[in-house]
Design a protein that fits this description.
Blueprint: H1 5-13, H2 16-26, E1 41-45, E2 52-56, E3 65-70, E4 97-98, E5 104-110, H3 117-144, E6 154-155, E7 167-174, E8 176-177, E9 224-225, E10 238-239, E11 244-246, E12 249-251, H4 263-266, E13 272-276, E14 280-285, H5 315-322, H6 341-344
Parallel strand pairs: 4-10, 12-14
Antiparallel strand pairs: 1-2, 3-5, 3-13, 5-7, 6-7, 8-11, 9-11, 13-14
């Protein structure tokens, strides 16, 4: 189980679920649960690729706010150095992760355990909105006799096509990017003063976004880092030359950036998250489940040991930024959960449940609010 019943009950009783649901509802069309396909957003076709794209009525890219609990790896969640890369079937020419690969992590969201009625309704309305898009597409395809390759946004966790699709599939932004892309070609080497340099026998050529003291990399929006920081990066599966690991806009309970090489721990199953089309992700409550540390992948003809763009200003982005959850004091005398318990605790003191200290991956953080993230 990705999250314990004890933690789920705490989320219910301290008002985390209720606060999240009320704020999502108040967003109106900035929330996927409320937005109407055909009115608030429309489908277009990209001329250069022929792919479908979804726009707001003003022509801007459709961005919307979504909430859910991260589902297990068995449901399709992928947090790994290889992401969703397809290297080919056994016997086919092997395709390693290289600078041309569009590698992304995948978050599959499920209904949070013990969610109150309003949050349940909003979660399933999100699925309803996505189904409305697909149903419209299917009707058009039948009328025109066309056949389109579709990457579904919703799925059944067990893979049963005859059962209800009750999970939301979100692909995050590109995991790797070229720091020099769009900067006028290869950067020329210039002279630097060497009078203050000391030979300590170490190299600083592999990680560009580091602190001056050679310590852990300093996190910044759109920063690039040595991909070897991922615990499962290495071997024949990877052939990156110029691309580096990209810092996406993923934030923890303290609203600080989360290091991309720790996503397997911070975005583990059971984590309650709120996001804007997976362009930006905010952790609302951590999971008490175990993290699955990814292992280095093998090429397809061997035993596979791998684990199963900048946000623009707009209504959805503004709603995402203002989203805030209050933890209320637990009612220790409570018995059976009821729909009204969240409201009963509304005026209680904020709970002081502290963030867990993680021994591994302690990182000096510095968010300079740069918005020049490179996306494929």
């Amino acid at each position: 189980m990705p999250v314990s019943a004890t933690l789920a009950q705490e989320r219910f009783s301290t008002g985390i679920y209720q606060d999240a649901a009320e704020q999502l509802k108040s967003m109106g069309r900035a929330s996927l649960a409320v937005a109407e396909y055909g009115t608030d957003f429309l489908r277009t076709t990209e001329g250069w690729s022929g792919n479908y794209a979804y726009k707001e009525d003003n022509g801007a890219e459709f961005r919307t706010n979504i909430i859910g609990q991260i589902a297990p790896v068995s449901a399709g969640t992928i947090i790994a150095a290889k992401g969703n890369h397809y290297a080919g079937r056994a016997g086919d020419p092997f395709r390693p992760v290289d600078d041309e690969s569009k590698v992304k992590d995948v978050l599959v969201l499920e209904l949070p355990l013990l969610a109150p009625d309003l949050l349940c309704a909003l979660f399933y309305n999100q699925i309803g909105s996505l189904n409305a898009v697909r149903e419209s597409d299917e009707m058009e395809e039948r009328t025109q006799g066309s056949r389109v390759s579709v990457r579904d946004w919703v799925r059944n966790a067990a893979g049963d096509e005859n059962s209800s699709k009750d999970h939301i599939v979100l692909h995050m932004l590109a995991k790797y990017g070229n720091p020099n892309k769009g900067k006028g070609g290869t950067k020329r080497v210039t002279k630097r003063s060497i009078s203050d340099f000391k030979d300590n026998g170490s190299s600083s050529s592999t990680v560009s976004s580091t602190s001056d003291g050679g310590e852990d990399p300093v996190l910044r929006s759109g920063g690039f880092y040595d991909p070897h920081l991922n615990p499962d990066f290495g071997g024949a599966y990877f052939n990156l030359v110029n691309n580096k690991l990209l810092q996406l806009d993923v934030r923890g309970l303290d609203n600080e950036l989360v290091a991309p090489w720790t996503f397997h721990d911070t975005l583990k199953p059971g984590t309650l998250v709120y996001q804007i089309n997976a362009h930006s992700v905010r952790i609302l409550d951590e999971s008490d489940g175990d993290a699955i540390v990814p292992v280095m992948p093998s090429i397809p003809n061997q035993a596979d040991s791998s684990p199963k763009e900048t946000v623009h200003a707009g209504p959805a982005s503004n709603a995402f930024t203002s989203f805030s959850i209050k933890r209320r004091k637990l009612n220790t005398g409570q018995g059976k959960l009821s729909e009204g318990q969240g409201d009963a605790n509304k005026d209680s003191l904020t709970a002081t449940r502290k963030l867990k200290k993680k021994e591994a991956g302690k990182t000096k953080r510095k968010d300079d609010d740069e918005t020049n993230a490179m996306h494929e």
